[in-house]
Amino acid sequence: EPEVTQTPSHQVTQMGQEVILRCVPISNHLYFYWYRQILGQKVEFLVSFYNNEISEKSEIFDDQFSVERPDGSNFTLKIRSTKLEDSAMYFCASSDPENRAHSNQPQHFGDGTRLSIL
Amino acid sequence: AQSVAQPEDQVNVAEGNPLTVKCTYSVSGNPYLFWYVQYPNRGLQFLLKYITGDNLVKGSYGFEAEFNKSQTSFHLKKPSALVSDSALYFCAVSRLYSSASKIIFGSGTRLSIRP
After folding, report:
1. Mutation choice for A interface testing from B6, B9, B44 by most A CBs within 10 A
2. Which residues of A touch B43 (CB under 8 A)?
3. How far does the CA of residue A82 sit from the closest CA of chain B (Å)?
4. Chain A residues within 8 A of B104 when measuring between CB atoms
5. In terms of CB atoms within 10 Å, which end of chain A has fewer, N or C?
6. Which residue, among B41, B5, B15, has the nearest Cα to B112 in the 3D structure?
């Protein structure tokens, strides 16, 4: 079964540095998402992306965050100047619009990137 | 606004016994409900969904969930637990018929199955 892949699996970064998290969604999917899970807490929505623009974003997704689909396969999340509180597991997800009318296609999640800010 | 509540942080069950993981939801309009499971150091795996129709939905690994509109609940169940079912379980809700709907997750319930 096709999978969403994320790289790296673990990223360690100094506070204040920029970090880019990478995702390869399932190839025929057109909706892309980033979620975050701080250790021991719930999974939180960050942003959704469709047709090369943001569809929706949460309060967490402030000016320090940006997303991009630089080519036909990758979907990236950039954090411009990392803070200690950005330490979390970041999950990418994708979904297939072909089933939208039936609304029965769930989002497929990658295994996540664990981001540790020092 | 949409929200999901999982009242139990942890559920402990003996292998072979039935299990229930509780979930209640709040959403305007018709709910689109999910259960996801997370194994250690892994992403979220889809278990099952409810859109409409039969209130009892069956999913992966022998799990099922019962939608109860009057109680706004969507409890996850399995007739006979396995040790391998031990994991973190998330109930989730999304708006129906929205093309790029975000998923709102509950806080998660850790299921521990003892041999």
Report:
1. B44
2. 4, 6, 91, 109-112
3. 23
4. 45
5. N
6. B15
Q: Which residues pair with A37 in a beta bridge?
A: A43, A89
Peptide bond into B31 cis (omega under 30): no
Query: A68, A82 in Cβ contact below 8 A?
Result: no
CB–CB contact B44 A43 (8 Å): yes
Burial tier of A96 (Cβ tally within 10 Å: 0-12, 13-18, 19+): middle
pLDDT in tens, B45-92: 889 989 888 899 999 899 999 999 999 999 999 999 999 999 999 999
pLDDT value at B18 more than 80: yes
CB A81, CB A17: distance < 8 Å: yes
Amino acid type, A37: Q
Asked if B92 and B2 touch (Cβ cutoff 8 Å), the reply is: no
